[in-house]
Amino acid sequence: MVFHYPHLRRLTGRNSLLRELSVTELKSLIVSSKSSDKSGTIPTLEEAIEILKGKKMFYIELKKGDSDKIAESVLNVLKKRLSEDSFTLSSFDPNLIKAVKAKNEQIRTGYIFSTKLRRFFLNRTEKQVGGFDQWHIENSLLNERLLKKAGKRNRELMVWKVNSEVQMKRCIELGVDGIITDNITKLNEVLSG
To answer: Which of 43, 52, 135, 136 is most exposed, with minimal Cβ within 10 Å?
Structure first.
């Protein structure tokens, strides 16, 4: 299922964790947001790919759980639907990335981290997993030193939680490889202006 939050209450009103419900139960829920008058259902990964077909690149965040089972089921879907060069799998959980790499070394992966403590353990984590193609860092960690370190290690640097124009311009000026935002309209304005 494609859903960002582990808990369903915020977007569905159901007081349950996503993992507690079957696919049938999840498909019966209506997803809505206070910031939009649109609603819908929770898509499977196959449905999300179908909705977004024609896009050049997919970034798929894998949530913590049974690493081998998640890696196998996600890769089975992706193998049927997308070419290996059209997606990146990322996670806060290095064991998930390790499971993905064990099944297929060619899959592009990203390690998500948001605290200085994670950055401190980055060397050990990379050694444990065998490396990542990308580092996905929280915006507050972005600095020139980390950009240089990523470049020396041949890692692309993707920055997330970049929602203001000022943050977007800073990322562009520093030369990050990608911006992850909730405000795509604003990012398109900044990029075209």
So the answer is: 52
